[in-house]
Amino acid sequence: MKEWWVQVGLLGVPLLAVYLHIPPPQLSPALRSWKSSGSFFTYKDLNIFYRDSSGAVGSSDVVVLLHGFPTSSYDWSKIWEGLTQRFHRVIALDFLGFGFSDKPRPHGYSIFEQATIVEGLLRHLGLRHQRINLLSHDYGDTVAQELLH
What we know:
five-stranded mixed beta sheet
């Protein structure tokens, strides 16, 4: 009788090969629309997805939305229109490793890096010296605390 690890290997290798060749699922129409209305900016050769909408006329307020774990900027889709009625600009991004942003492996993901990416997006959009409102939840709360620090 063969060793147990040989039997596991003989079964595991073909299963892994099949798994690696399964195509990803198709995006829903809502997700396709969300992605098509966004853009990407580059942070250290990595593509970061974001949405930036102009909204309320007469307001100069900008709000940046920071999503939770393990989700994406799509968390904000159901209240996006309402936010654009209150704020001049509504901005949301997918943190590195989430949503439509790149997911490098191996990579040492950190809250500090995510905060730096948010700062990079604000520079990219010309908002570095603008007063910014933050709206966050879950994982985004920790990133927001680092930004406030």
